[in-house]
Amino acid sequence: MDNLRTSHHNPRIQNQNLVGNSPATQLVRERIRQAVEANVDTILLTGETGTGKEVVARAIHFQASSESEDRPFVAVNCAALPESLVESELFGHIKGAFTDATTDRAGYFEQANNGTLFLDEIVDLSLHIQAKLLRVIDTRTLRRIGDTQEISFQECVISAFNRDPVSLVKSGQFRSDLYYRLNVFPMHLTPLRERPEDILPLAAYFLEAYTARGGRGFDSFSEGAKSFLLDYQYPGNVRELQNIVERTAVLCPPGISVIGVEHLDIQGDTLEEMPLQSDKSADEKELIVRVLEETHWNRRQAAKKLGTPYSTFRSKMKKLGIS
Q1: Cβ of 291: how many Cβ atoms within 10 Å?
Q2: Span 226-240, pLDDT tens digits
Q3: Which domains does the chain have, with CATH numbers?
Q4: Beta strand 42-46 with 156-161: parallel, antiparallel or unpaired?
């Protein structure tokens, strides 16, 4: 199912250390160490979409499971759970509990017993399910739908928010008691644009990983490509950088060993369009033309000067009839 990813001890995943040496990444490494050494069983991850919350959850799990190869890691995308089946998916059911319950089924909490359960986008669960979730996490016991028997479990529960949980609580979208219960050991993941020291190490890592999977081999990025990667804002964070590198590698012309700025494939049309900076003395078209003239019609430099992705800038030029 799209909402579930389960794995046991896997050396390939375990060795995927957090890439980068920015102060923010070093702090995350330290927080992971503290959580593992203290055997914390309830952790809250916050950060924008694509910042690597599941990577951190897996790092916590595999460091804590280094002496055991059979501890499960279960990752659940709460946003993808069908509304009518959420309770069954999380807590399980017994045969005959409802029309389609033809067999007993263990829910995700049971499946993760003695391991780690990662609840991604937990805010998308209804307030009704949040109330049940509070009791289950608080008591570390559950009842399958249709059953009267209490089942105990012991695991690390890692929850993730891609929006500010405090504002969600204030707006009534998330229960305050559940938030306080989950917020035992908080960890915040900084957006990639605020830790530029990590961009090039991550890009090199993704390029090497692509080659290791059987793709074409590349030596490196050109200085121009590195400069462009450093200047880009990454609204999709680390996930977007990974996609850019892999897509560029796939589409790069044969015979290229060093990826240049002209090879980078940034799909700005798949993102929320980043607005150009406003200029009170001229409309958008006049602003673009003026900046193009200032940069001798170097489109990439003009896009950089205006603080917008190159692909979005090209779309703007086409839309406004600038050639």
Answers
A1: 22
A2: 999 998 999 999 999
A3: 4-190 (3.40.50.300), 192-266 (1.10.8.60), 271-323 (1.10.10.60)
A4: parallel
